[in-house]
Amino acid sequence: MTRASESPVAAALEGFAAGRAALAAGVVVEALAGGTANQSARVRSAAGDWVVRLAGAADGTFAINRVAERQVHAAAARLGFAPSIVHANPEQGLLVTEFIAGHTMSAAELAAPEGLRALGMRLAELHAVPPPRDVRRLDVHEALAHYMELPDVPPGPVSRADLGARLRCSLAKYRQDAVAFCHNDLHHLNVIVAERPWFVDWEYGGVGDPLFELAAVIGYHDLDPAQRELLFAAYGKPFAAERVTEMCLVFDCLHALWLDAARAWDSLAAGRREALLARLRIDPAEQEI
Questions:
Q1: This prediction's pTM
Q2: Is domain 103-288 given the CATH code 3.40.630.30 in the classification?
Q3: Rg of the chain in Å (alpha carbons)
Q4: CB 144 within 8 A of CB 257
């Protein structure tokens, strides 16, 4: 925890009136865990208690549109699922939001029965709201095509050919039969536990497939069949087991492609890496399909 002077956070605050007022009053800056290319900090002052997110420059690689992100986050905040926006400058990748008093959910907390119930119920609430008209639509096929076609991405532990084969098997049967307002990247680090769960980092949010949302939760946290049952029971809507399996595989393929693009396979703990690779291995019989 430090007092800001010459720093990227101070420079960001200088760019808008409320930020300048905060600097004039005196701010205390506390670094927060960031993403692969993002820097985040909690900034406290007489003007407010905020989170300042400074994004990296690799938006094209990761298919992030900062204008669309601002629109999605603003809609989520209006609906009570995200902290309110204090200031946003999409051209700079700057997003300043109100700080939510709570704690970032841990992987163990999410995977516990109470965490799965709370998250399942909260996702049901999110997916039940009428999809906002002022936010983008997300297409799973387009997201996969973007990552499959990225140039100059070094090969990861799963070849593009194997991922393509996996996707052909799953996408041949894929049909989106519902649309909902989705976060689309619900890793536990994007969930704030307070009086109710809040969702942050809406970079990939939009109107999309609610089953894909649930598959992301399952894939990110290696949920076993019993944990999946708890999640879906809390969500309150059954899905055919075959459809869940197919969508989980689609998400695992997308996750692997993202890890390739981010050069981030080493960021996974050994157990998580092996679990993902095991799910992506192709049975020789499947190659004949």
A1: 0.92
A2: no
A3: 20
A4: yes
